[in-house]
Amino acid sequence: MTIADDSLRVPGAARLPSLLGADEPSAFTVAHADGRSPFVLICDHAGQRLPRALGDLGVSATELQRHIAWDIGAAGLARELARRLDAFVITQPWSRLVIDCNRPPSAPGSIVTRSEHTDIPGNRNLSAHDAQARVREIFEPYHARVAAELDRRALAKRPTILVSVHSFTPVYAGVARPWHLGVLYHRDARVAQALLALMREDGRWVVGDNEPYTVSDATDYAIPVHGERRGLPHVELEVRQDLISYSAGQAEWAERLAGWLVRLPDFGDPG
Questions:
Q1: Total tally of structural domains belonging to the chain
Q2: Are 152 and 223 spatial neighbours (Cβ–Cβ below 8 Å)?
Q3: Looking at the chain, which runs of residues are DSSP E strands?
Q4: Which of 26, 69, 124, 164 has its CB 3.0 to 4.6 Å from that of 236, i.e. a possible disulfide?
């Protein structure tokens, strides 16, 4: 069962003018809420929707289909992976051009005015009020729901492994990327190193070790906050978009990733 959950609202939100209309999707969708596996899957860049109040942000429909607006294929991959693992999964449907839910709100990349070679006119000269509305109605409820699930599992003393699912474009700024997938981490490499070993043992794939991106406190939110601060085993997975831009590719890669994930070692008592 998949639900769009409006039960978590940031205090004070109802007293301020709303960015999202009452008939628009909430900041997140949860599926497999009662999943029995230790995995919790999150997908920060699952969608490309723009709130009606923002129009098209001055960006063409063609550009809004590109990777600048969302992680192409990541939502389908996350849902397929959750089904195979029997895992809780939460996806965030609003475009990262509205607000990037894997950036601290104070980071320059939180609300961009240019992405790769595309200007985002609707993000220029935002007032503090307008920027905060995006934080309040999209960023905070999404991360509050992730935190609530992790709190629930901690209270129940359930083993938990956090997996953040993303995708990356095959070519960025004119430079081709050779990796089929990437395994990302920061201070805690427990899950990443175990996965890298399994993936390389397979022998068929070019796997990036903290490629094509790296994780840092300055530029990332989910892994530092939900993974590292809690001491949870965690990893960020990146799969190249041409491999998962269609349903059969998502199913194929979900099956492959699930096969690796279920072979991970026991990372110990959640405390």
A1: 1
A2: no
A3: 2-4, 29-31, 39-43, 88-91, 114-115, 118-119, 161-168, 171-172, 175-176, 181-184, 207-209, 234-240
A4: 164
d(C-alpha 36, C-alpha 85), whole Å: 8
Structural domain harbouring 256: 2-261
How long a stretch of residues is the chain? 271
- Domain assignment present for 235: yes
Residue 266 lies in a domain: no
CA triplet 238, 144, 262: central angle to 5 degrees?
Answer: 40
pTM beyond 0.85: the answer is yes
User: Which is it for strands 114-115 and 118-119: parallel, antiparallel or unpaired?
Assistant: antiparallel
Structure tokens of 157?
Answer: 């003393």
Model pLDDT for residues 189-237, shown as the tens digit of each residue:
999 999 999 999 999 999 999 999 999 999 999 999 999 999 999 999 9
Q: How far apart are CA 173 and CA 171, in angstroms?
A: 7
| Separation CA 203–CA 81 (nearest Å) | 21
